[in-house]
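Hi U.,

Before I forget, here's the chain from the pilot set. I'm dumping it here mostly so it's searchable later in email.
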Amino acid sequence: PRWVKRLIAGKQFDQARAYMDHVIDQAVTILKNRKVSALFTTPKLLEAMAERMDLIKAGIKGVFCGGTTMDQQYTRFLVEEICENQIGFVPTYGNTLMGLARHRPFGPENDYSITYHAPQPRAVLRVVDPNKTESLVDYDAWGRVELTTLTKEFFMPRFLERDEAIRRSPWENCPWDGVAEVRPFGAMEKKIVEGVY
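Structure:
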């Protein structure tokens, strides 16, 4: 695991905080000395950065945010309080095997629920029953995320991700299933340690 996750798991919270402060110090220094208009960051680092500086006054126009769990309440907090509804907020979900998934529009109209759709045909996401992975769960039910990747160079069928999500029905702009409320697999049954990225 990443060093900061080991610190958190070992209850070395001051060390984890010192690490995060170090990362934020670096980001703040760059933002104060360079013209930056877009950030790629995690939710926790975005929140910590906003505690140290006014992101709007710093010239940030957009934030691509992902890498750790963003439930509906936290997403709303990031959009309304951290970005103050003035900085574009783009949730991200993806990895090297899949690439970045596209998200549906979200906001007050759907209670800030984020649904992602894989970049087909290169990648296919399914939400499967964790105890019977050949079976899909019903729409709007929780299950484990499964990824199939197919490119000219590479084929990886039915790889079980370390995530669980709600299966969502197709969307007019992506007429295939989506995944929503993505979080670490088993998050409701056991304590999961998430780092800052």
